[in-house]
Amino acid sequence: MDTQVSPVVDPPTPASRGGPGARPPAVSRVALAAALLLPPRLTPESVRYDRRYRTVDRYRFVCWFLAPPLLIYTVLVIWPFLQAFFYAMTDWTGFGGEFSMVWSGNFSRMWRDDAFWDALANSLVLLVLAPVITLALGLFFAYMLNAGGRHRRSESVGGVRGAAFYKIVYFLPQVLSVAIIAIVWARVFSPRSGLVNTGLEAVGLGSLAQDNWLGGSWARWVILLVLCWSFVGFYVVLFSAAMAAVPRDIYEAALLDGAGRAATFFRVTFPLTWDTVRTGWIYMGIQALDAFALVIVMVPRGGFDVLPTYLYLKAFREGQAGYATAVGVVLFLITLVFTLVMMRVGRRDRIEF
Amino acid sequence: MTSSPHLHRRTLIRRSAAAGLTALPAMAALSACASGGGGSGGGGKQQNAPGEVTERNPFGLTADSGVEVLIFNGGFEDQYARDVGAVFEEHYGSVEHNATEEISARVQARMVSGNPPDMINNSGADMMPLPALLKEGQVADLRPLFDAPSWDDPAVKVRDTLLPGTVESGQYGGQEVYVLNYAFTVYGTWYSRKLLHDTLEEEYPQTWDQMLAVCEKAKKQGIAGWTYAGHHARYLSFTMMPMMAKVGGPEVFDAIDRLEPGAWKQDAVVAVFEAYEEIAAKGYLLPGTPGINHTESQTEWAKNKALFLPCGTWLENESKADIAPDAEIAVGAATGLDSSDALPFGTLYATAGEPFIVPADAAAPRAGMEFLRIMLGRDAARNFTEKVSSLTSVAGAADGLALPPGLTSAQEAVAAAGENIVAPRFREWYPVFFSDVMGVAMGEMMAGDLTAAEALDRIQAGADAVAADDSVEKYL
User: Fold this and answer.
1) Domain boundaries along the sequence of chain A
2) Better pLDDT: A159 or A333
3) Burial grade of B194 (CB within 10 A; 0-12, 13-18, 19 or more)
4) Domain of B330?
5) Does a structural domain hold residue B439?
6) Which of A77, A95, A305, A317 to mutate to probe the B interface, most B CBs <10 Å?
7) Which chain B residues touch A324 with a CB distance below 8 Å?
8) Comparing A13-17, A30-34, B77-81, B375-379, which segment has the lowest mean pLDDT?
9) Chain B: nearest CA to A76, how far in angstroms?
10) How do residues B207-248 score in pLDDT, each as one tens digit?
11) Superfamily assignment of A107-345 in CATH?
């Protein structure tokens, strides 16, 4: 307010307005920098009437709004990251104040650690498969809900009957805590009383029932299933929003040209929602790399590990926080590389509409 | 450890940095705490002015000493400790009593910053790994407690009031005793007397031939011979380990505990694995057992779907809602192979469990020890047994109490075993090997995924890997 009002109330003298010979009053850089920290009404007039003050005023606004989140982000995210890189080079147990530097020792130990490679392989399987399955299902459902219905006279494109209801049903897992999802699904796969085995027997497929869905070789596929199930709903809603933004007349044009549902999807919907799909892909990839809560709740010890559960085992059950932090650093690098690759691979010309 | 002031300051900086890793916003506050802390492993700070040391007050506490304790709020809950606290408060000031299911989450940051409670019931799934704590010198030696006069009779030392093996169970390779194991747990084959004696008209099997015959008879009546906690297959060791000792003598455990090459290829070990493989191969296992957890297995067993269950004395309390009042449950000592076994029938796997520690950096470790001394008194021990249906390590404390049937049978089993009480130590020393390697291999053998020989190969390889792994502390 002040900055807009006061020049009117108290206009600067013509001499200070500029012009070839008229230099503004000499206000030091220090005073201008100090103005960044002051609210406008407390800023001395000599500074306020300086020509460079307009820039200061703009940056002051930006700085004050950015400072709190940046500070929190630095303290809670950046600083722990830096610390993690440091602790990854120590033999800290996590239970005392003493440790010594082992430099690359943790990483060379990881290189020879079969259990680490198993966990890494499991994490990578999830990283590749979970986004593909989840996003494919999410796109398919969203398309059916938005543009996959029978043609009605009133509108060119529309969802299947009951689309609004399905949208809520798909989204339901999102409002459940992941711990609840894990416990419920563990019950479903319980061999004696679970829905899966009793269901298989009820329809005469008892031979497919397993004694140990969650512990043996089936565990990773069960985790993959639950992971996809719990996230599909989110992507249905996300992609629905993206598809709703596609102008109807493009669909109408495609229809007039005789495009069927598949052609409409691959030629119109998919290219026009690609940006959202790519963002979703990165997000889902990170979710798949985590999968910690599902695995720790559903899979018994010794069943199988993903990187985060292996990290947890080392840090909290074996008291090897230094080694665990090194595993965490590797997980961080994998996430980073994955994100960068996805950003590069997916880059296309943006279609404006 | 930190004698020079220069070193001390560096320790302080490291500690505050370490604390910051767990709780950055509180970093400034925590480093302030750490600056109040002394060096680690030095036996603690002496904030309280010591009172007069007497027979009744061996730790020299005063009327306002106070103590801070952290109790694991698991199967035993925490009322018994509140009762101990009430006695403590009568003599030595206020008790700050905290109870949690997640010990590590609650105190790990405080351990790192050198400001732990005076006594911790370090138990449960989220317990702090003791080997790591020992490596850091975070645990006080409890020998002053065990050598102190007992709460009830100053003429008798605390260590002489305990069941044999209790003090030893708290040792990690040396003479120091770091852990008080308070609950005395009997492991074995659990069954319902009603089901075995009345329904099946059989006696508890003492040889493996009898075991197979009983299982066969049960199978004909639609009852499975065995079930176990498939997702925690290490429970199988509660009956397999004592069987190994019965077949081959207690020396079998020595080689296993020391991670000796070929320890898991000893004749007795192989014989026991083959015996259990036969149970699974002959279809005496409850279908689906490999995929159920411990509570599911206990429920199925309590519903008489299976005859035998490997478990410990906590079973009766944990599954009391499922066990029929007239089931007359009992724990049986390990069934042997045949008459050529090294030890007689009755050989029992029993050991003191439920660990209590006093942190070395605690503000008042002597108050923590006094709390434990009261807990080891006769009244507190009887109160514990009555409250939670578990025996304690205090010898004879439960005599004359009206105990539930399972606990009574455990008491009888201890008496019948006499000298032949056995317990392997590698379970506490190498817990990850115990549950993730040995337990999982046992489970896969019972599930039919591995033969006995393959399971033993896997376990031996795991033991060899632990022996060769520098990052794992070794004991003995």
Assistant:
1) 2-75, 107-345
2) A333
3) middle
4) 185-351+407-468
5) yes
6) A95
7) none
8) A13-17
9) 7
10) 999 999 999 999 999 999 999 999 999 999 999 999 999 999
11) MetI-like (1.10.3720.10)
